[in-house]
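Researcher: I've been going back and forth with a colleague about how Kinase-like protein might be arranged in three dimensions. Neither of us has a model we trust, so I'd like an independent prediction. The organism is Roridomyces roridus, in case that matters for your notes. Sequence below.
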Amino acid sequence: MESNDICAKLVTVHRGRREAVIVKLNKPAKIGRNPARCDYVCEGVFVSGIHCELSAVRTAHGGVIVSCQDFSRNGIMLNGQRISKSVVILLHGDIIEFPSMEEEPRVFTCIHMWRDRPDKIDLFDPTPPQHPSNNTKTITIGKYLVSNQKLGSGAFATVHLALDTTHAARRQVACKTIRAKKGCDVTQIFKEISILNGLEHPNINRIYDTERDSQFIFIFLQLCTGGDLFTYITEKVHLNQAESKFLFFQILLGLDHLHERSISHRDLKPENILLYAPGAYPRIVIADFGLARPMAYQETRNVCGTVSYLPPEGILALDQEHLKYVGMPSDCWSSGVILYVMLTGSHPFDNDPEFGSSSNWLNHIKASRGSEPSKNYHDHEANLKAKIIAGDIDFTCKRWDALPDAKALVSSLLIHNYEQRATIRDALHSYWIRCELTGLREAYHNRVLVSARP
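Model: Here is an independent structure prediction for Kinase-like protein. You can compare it with whatever you and your colleague have in mind.
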């Protein structure tokens, strides 16, 4: 691991000597009493064998999330507040304290080392890029303290780290801020929020609260610290079959919960699937419900979503206003594309010669995230639409030879006629899922339901 993969260090002074725990990208560091399993040993009867794990993962836009997950019996103190059995984001300058019987408690200061922009993006960017600042600012919105620590941003919203001051453990949450522009249908936004407020499922990003003022709408959401699924896939190029199956099983359970209530997501893609915490075989959370639709069994002319994940009927309705499409079968198509991407690191239809091979699609999309799409990408979009409409799935990748049951499931979800397309319930009953259902349920209980407990 190269030195430029160092994202943060936790610095302490112990018995007169300065010591540090180094946190590297995608290489967790454990702190605890057990020297055989921990990267840094912290002695004391109140310290667990593995007390906590420090992680750093990339964000969608090239930054890094540094987090701490507590596994202990006695918890840790973060900036004077007790944290127990949860995962929190560590900001530059945060203070962590471990339980100790010593006269001087074991106190660590988090120092961020990562520079979000290692290269100059704009002519006026500083050279070299600025180091992180501990100048954290907050504003009060209702019962929440919203910080200037940005977790993500898009065309219509920005997400900041916030703190629920009324929660017993002063819970960290994500604050999604939407500017209420002139002509914005605020009533419709709150209608969609009210529908999603009733959804409680381990694989759906939970809404805790909403607030608004004259300029903004604030949505307070469950905090996820492991980044998004697209970034997770690009770090590995593709996932193995076992991990893909576990993640897809969770996606299906979350979508089944939505579809049972006649709600469609309508913008399902790896970028909108979050990892609750860092690590392999993670719990995933379906997020970004800004385009979600109730009564999703009804046809609509309002096509939305990302072209690469839209079904044929959605592509046709984009260019022909008199055509309609249905939200729930669109989610099923999108899930099939996601499964294909997880297993191969490529796209079932986006195999334009521009990329050299279908696997280069992943790198192209990664490079274009957070910036305007390239002219070449715009130029070949019509070709992509035509391939989706034609429905000729690219199964030339040799990996499919060893994945006949997964291939059958992908094929059933990518059927051109949405009336014949597999439903989410059909996918849950597919042989690829059923053949290991007992193991999937056991892993789901241990890795998902346990972390989802209040």
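Researcher: What would you highlight for our discussion?
Model: I'd start with this: Confidence is low (pLDDT under 50) at residues 117-129. After that, consider the following. DSSP finds eleven helices and 21 strands in the chain.
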